[in-house]
Structures are given as structure tokens and as C-alpha cells.
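thoughts on both lines:
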Amino acid sequence: MSGAPAALLIVGTDRTRMRAEIARHRDSYDDASVTVVPATAGGAADILQDSMTMGLLADRRLIIVHGVDAWNVADVDAYLVWKSNPPPDVLLLLTAAELRSNSRLLKAFTGSSRVNVAGPSDPREMAAWVHDRFSEAGVDASRDVCAALVRIV
């Protein structure tokens, strides 16, 4: 995986776009070489330590960690240590619904342009986002209908 990043971060609330972005990366890996774990499963140190071992039948691995916005300071510290010397054939794909702009984890990716933002970060933008998704699908929905749908959901 020379030249490829060791880790990617997808941040946002647009589940459709997040799934599409994950699928875009996952599609280039055999199922046996993909691991999906919640960020709360044993903490970042355990997850990252597991990334150091190669699977028996895989020459490269994709590790998808959902919910890294739940990571605490020690978890982020563990990631920053891992990032300094990642395994050469592992792609770590981290997902989060939201990270504050001053988050150390977010800053670790922003500097290297490895952040994919999906969905509106402000709940007040949700109705416009829903309207845009309908429009992309070729469905004519009024802004009032979209706003009502957001209130219901």
C-alpha cells in the first residue's frame, strides 16, 4: 500500500454517504481481510494492537472502527502512537458522527487531508439536506415536507 494513507477518517451524520465511502474502500479487500469493530470494544489500544498482526490468508487488511467520537484521551493517544509507525499493509478506517473542531483526533487527519465529511453538522441544516437527497433521487419534495419529515424522525 505504498503511497496510500495508513488511516482515513469519515465524520458525519449522512449514513448513506458514510456507507458508500466505507464500501468504496471495503470493495478492494477480500472479506477475510476486513475487520469491523465498535470503537468501544476494548479501547483503542487493543484495536490498534490487533492491527499489528496479519491475518492468515490476507496480504493486507482493512480495519473499520465505528464510533471513534467515543474515544477518550488515552484512546486518542494510542492512535497517535500507532500513527507514528503503522503496519505497512493495514488501512485503518475510522468513523465518527461528530468531532469537535479542536479534537486532537480530527486534527491528526486534517493536516494530511484525510477527512471525509458526510452530512450536515448542524441539525438546523437537516431539512435542506433531506431536500437535496430527494432532488438527487429525482423526487420533487417541497421544503415544507422535508422539514416536517425531519421533525418526525
Q: What stands out?
A: The helical segments are 15-26, 44-50, 73-84, 104-110, 126-136, 143-152. The longest strand covers residues 90-96. DSSP finds six helices and five strands in the chain. The two ends are 41 Å apart (CA to CA).
